[in-house]
Each structure stands twice: as C-alpha cells, then as structure tokens.
Amino acid sequence: MKQLWVIISWEFFRHFKSRSFLIATFISPLIFSLIVLIPSFFLSDAGTQVPRIIGCVELDSTRICEKIKARLDDLFFFTNQAPSVHLVKIEGDTTDYLRAQFKKVARLKSELDSLENVYNTIKERRKYIYQKPKTRTREKLLRQTYEELLQARESRDMTLLEYEKQKARVDSAWHDALIRKADELLRTQTLEGYILVNREDFEAGRVEFHSLLPAGFLQIEPLRHALQVAVVEERLNKEGIRVDKIQEWLHPVEIREIQLQGENKQEFDFMVNYLGPIILVLFLFISIFTSSGFLFNGVLKEKTNRVIEILLSSVSTLQLMAGKILALGFLGILQILIWFGLTALLIGLQVLNIHQINFLTLQNAGLFLLYFVLGYLYFASIFVGVGSLFSSEEDAHHLNQFMRLLSIFPILLAILVLEIPNSLIVRLLSFIPPLTPTFMILRTPFGNPPEIDYLISTAIMVVSIVINIFFAARLFKIGSLLYGKKPTFREIFKLAFSRL
Amino acid sequence: MNIVVDHIQKKFGETPIIKDLSFQVESGQVLGLLGPNGAGKTTTLRMILDILRPDDGSITFEGKKINHHIRNTIGYLPEERGIYQKYSVLDTLMYFGRLKNLSKRKSHVEAVRLLDRFGMIEYLDVPVSHLSKGWQQKLQFLITIIHDPEIIILDEPFWGLDPLNQEMLRKQILQFKEKGKVVLLSTHQLNEAEALCDYFVMIDEGEVVLKGKLEEIRRDFQENMVIIETEENLEDLKKIPQIQKIVVENRRAILHIDKNVSLAPVLQRIVSTVNITKLEVNKPSLNDVFLETIRQRRTEAK
Fold first, then answer.
1. Choices 2.30.30, 1.10.60, 3.30.70, 3.30.1450: CATH for B223-301
2. Terminus of chain A with fewer CB atoms < 10 Å: N or C?
3. Which residues in chain A come in under a pLDDT of 50?
4. ipTM score here?
C-alpha cells in the first residue's frame, strides 16, 4: 500500500510539474472555447453592436430604397434602438458626356412631345372636317390633311425611335456608372454588399444582392426579411389596402424562449445554453484525454527506456498499473477543480452571470466529476493495456491517434443530443460505454434526463471499467516485458486470455 | 538467506522456455547463470523476481514463497536498462529507494551516501539526461543497491561498462560476497564469471546442462581433453580406441579421451602415431567449457 502511494505521488507530481499539464489546463480549454465562441460572435448581430452598412442601387427613381430602409430600421435595431443594418442609397456621379447625352434625350423627348401634339392636332382637324357636309372642298381638305397626318406620324415615329435608342443608351450608361460606383464601394469595403432594384423586379419580388463574400456568410437574413415586408406592403398597397394598417399587420412576432428545467422554467439564451454544454463536453474531453494521454505516453516511455523492468522488480504489475491510473485520475480531478475554481472566480468577478447560465449548478458539477471519473477510468484502462503492448513510440503514436479519433466520435454525434436529448436513439447511445460520458453530460442541461438513465449509464460504465481493467492488467503484465516485436491483433487477443 | 529453485518450468504459448530447472544459492555465494542467447536466463531471473510465474515447480527464499518483504530485500539490475531522463539524480535514486520501502528520510540519506561513495555527489541535482552513458549506468547500479539488499540479481551487469566501471563493479560484487549476500550473476562475459562466481549453472534451451563449482567443472573437462598441433593426417589417431572424438580446427585438434583410462599411455601412443609440433593437456577455461558443452549439445541434437 505504501509503495502504491509512492507511485501515485511520483506519477502525480511528475505530470503536474510538466509543461503539457499547464497547456492542457489553461491554454487548450481557452483555445477550444475561442474556437467555439468566436464564429458565433462574428455571426451574431447582438454580440457586436457594430452596424452593418449595405448599399442600395435604384435603377429607376421610384424610391424603393427608401421603403426598404424604412422597414429595415423598423425591424432590426440594437438594444440602444440604433439600427443594426444601415441601408445607404448609392447616387451615381454624372460626367460631362453623360450630361450632354441626358440633354440630347431631353431634347428628343420634347421634340417627340411636340410631334405628338402636331399629329394629334391634325387628327382633330380631320375629325372636324369629316363632320362637315360632303363638298368638293371637304374632299380636298381630307386628302390634304391625310398627307399631313402621314407626314406627322412618320416624323413622330422616327423621333420616337431615335429617342428610345438614345434613352436606352443613356440609361445603360447611367446604370453602369451607378453599378461601377457601388462595386468600387464594395472593393474598398465601405459596403458589406449592395442590393440592385428596379420597379418591375421589385414588384415581382426579385432583387439582386452583390457582395465580395458569399451572401450566406454575411447573413443577409435581416435584409431578406425587410425586403419581404417591403414587397408585401407594396403589393397590398396596390390592391388598395390602407398603408397605416399594413404597417400594423406586418409588425414582427417576438418569440420568448422558455425552457423547463426540472421544476423551474427559465428563459433560454442560445449563446449560453446551447454552446455552453458543448464547451463543457470539450472540457471533459480535454480532461479525459490529457490524463489518459499522459498515462499512455508514460507507459510507453517506461517501456522504451526499459525503466519498467526495474519498477516491476520492486512492485507488482497491478500496483504499478493502479498507481499510474489513480495518479493521473487525481491529476484529472485537480484539473477539473482548477476549472471549477476559475469558473467561481469569473462568477465572483461578475464576468459570468450564474442566473443566466442554467446549467452552472452544484448538482451538474457533481455529475461532471462523476462522468469524468467513469470516462477516465474507461479510457485509461484501454490506453494503459494497449500502450504496454508497443515498443516503439512511432507504432504506438498511430494507435494513439486512432484512439483519439475514435473518441472524438461522440462529439460528432452530439448534434443528435442537441436535437432530441431524450429520444430513444439518444438514450440507447448514452448506454454505449465510449459514448456515455459525453452524451450524459450533453443531455443533462438540454434534456434533464430521468434519474434511471443516470443509474443505468453509471452501472454500465462501472461494469465496463471492471472488464477493461481485468484485460488491461493482463495485457500490461505481458506487454510491459515484450520488447522489439509489434504484436498482431491475433496475438493481443491470445495474450488477453492466456495463462500468465 | 538462500534461494531454492526447484524444478521450475515455463512456457510462452506452446513454446517451452524453461523445461526443468533446479539450483540453489546460499548467502555469501556468487552464482553464475550462464547460457547462450535465448537459453532462458532472463526468464529464470524474472521468475525469481516474481515478474513472471513458473507454470510448474517452485522458487523459495529461506523456504518461503516470495512476498512483499522478500521482494524488498532484492536488488535487480536488468539487462534491458533504462532510467527516467528528466529527473535529477537524487530524485531518481530516492524514488527507487522508496519503492523498496525506504522512508523518505532514509532514501534521501542513503542516496546521498551512495552518491558520495561512488564519486557522483556533484551530480546530485543534475538531470539524468545530462549524465554520460557511463555515469547513467553507474546510477542504475546505485538504484539496484540503494536499499542494501540481501539478494542481488545482476543480468549482464558488465554490458556497456568502461574498464574503470567494470573494475568498480567487480570489487562491489566481491564485497557483497564478503558481506554474506546472495549474488546471482547472469552474464556472457565468462572471464568475469570465472573470476567472480563460486558456483555455476549453465543452461541451454531451458535445461541445466552443467552445474557445479568451477574446479569440479574444470576437472571434468581437464581429464579428457588433449590439444595437439600437427600437419599430418589425423586418420591414424582414430585407430586409438581410447580417443572418443577428434575436433579439428585448422592445424589444431582437440582430442576427447575416455575419462576412465590413464592418460599417460594414451599420450605416448599419440606421440608415436603422428608427428606433433605441440601437445597440451588442456586445463579448460570457462569459455572452453561453455563452447564445448553447447557445441556437444548442438551436435547431439543434429
């Protein structure tokens, strides 16, 4: 027993003083948390309080941009009432050439208007002549005005053609200038993106969004929402429905999310209560695999540098294995207690709001410790048994990587838990030992699992751990003295069941 | 203290490693466990240390099976040696001392005492990785003896040591013997074994092929081995009935003569049969005994 404590304290302190422990305790969790949180801060409007600037290019002067802007301002704003999306109308710069072209189009237009007048006047005159009694003069006048009418129509049509041609050219040049300017603003990152609208498309519910980055990444959801409202408003308005009422009807619905937590109900904050447990599981994962990883490398190193033989001449294999597993288990618990301490400190400094984070309870802390111990003992026994079979760090490294990959699997399945925490499939998966710690820790804040699930999962873990330790001890006993040869799976299997 | 190894057997899977092995070693005795590679020496030592269990037979210490207390009276220097590299010389020594049930204080005192005695006191706080290979091997030896063991088991202890450290180790083994400790020495270096051991157990393929004191072993070989050097054909020698076997090595021939006959007439007959440039009645070294015994076994096996 005394020697067991000697091994425990040696193993505990030698890893406690190592740089890897410091990294695993303070730096890895920080990096993991940042990896999870940073994208959500970027993708969330509420998190940043920095308004986004979106341009609006209107291809005809129908004031659509103003309407969209009004809806955006109504619907999306920060807590201080400032709009969260600014819609800026893009005005084009007019060059001398363009101004001359505009004048030319205007001249053609007035020319067209006067020709139209002339044509209409002739038509009126002919109508008047028709109404007169049939005389020779009337016939002559009709023939004469008919000639005039044909001439006037031809002149008008020719001018119309010229006008349309010129107008199309000028419009196109004008649109190009507008788009060029908007693109320039995009490139200089003055704008995050801009919408391109004209009356016809707007009424049909079609709007273009131009941006440097993919629109999905920029989250154009607020813009889409505001456009939808503006288009519906426009259509209802066209149907003759009162504008003031439209505003009232289209007022957005506010949904407050309340979650049942045992006997209590609490408001659900996505950021805190959805991402929080995932971070918690990552912490559990770090803790289990830091300790198991130390154990694995420790056994492997002692085997490759042959210290193990001296150790085994002093203590039994069981004492050595137990000493190592317990020492690193205590180290894992210390790591978790450090995290609990840091959490308490953050709560004390009011960086974390304990009332907002539903799952930060003593009971959950206890469950976290329980599933750490169970998860650690489960994986540690596998790592120590398998680690002792290898003689070269290179061979063992491949296996170690494979094991870690396998253990990340539960985290990948976590989405299932987040969707339906107490479904049959999730419950069944929680009772499969490698998944149990991760799944139960995830289910606790989300699904508030029934007590029986805790009991069954703990019992299954305890039985699996006993079986694992039994085989690990056998493998460790033979494996630790096996040098030079890489055992095959068949040999490992035979060793596990052979007489020692 | 004595160790009695009584008809032990050990198989790994279906392969027998130790077929039947018995020997005994007493206080103040150095027992040499000899044998070629793969003979089963290390497995035997591991069974004595209870790292492995024999399938059959028993190993007792003063009539008792190994227990926690007996284990703490054994010092073991394995063939496959290693040491923690990151930790200081003192910490490493103390840890292994504590594993042998020394108190923290006692292990500290003993570690410092040993380091001083073996001229390593200046390396007290130095990490093991900073020591040269020779110093590391010396430290491994100190780990073996930090708890002043009653039984010292050394597996290839001279392997990799420089002449200075070899001399140091030789002296230590003789001191252990004087102090009445039990020393079990497994080695390939037969000249060292010859100089240090009182009793030899030679094993091959898990069986004892030879055992006894050096003089007894030598006597057995001395009586029936004659070495001659000649350039003549040795066919005529085969006609001498007392010569049981002739082993030819270049110009040298080893003649095995029937142990039960007087040597002088046979020698006379040899001299009269062939023209000999050199004749030597062999006083075999342990090395000769070892080689000859193994060679004989291999020939018989064929």
1. 3.30.70
2. N
3. 45-47
4. 0.78
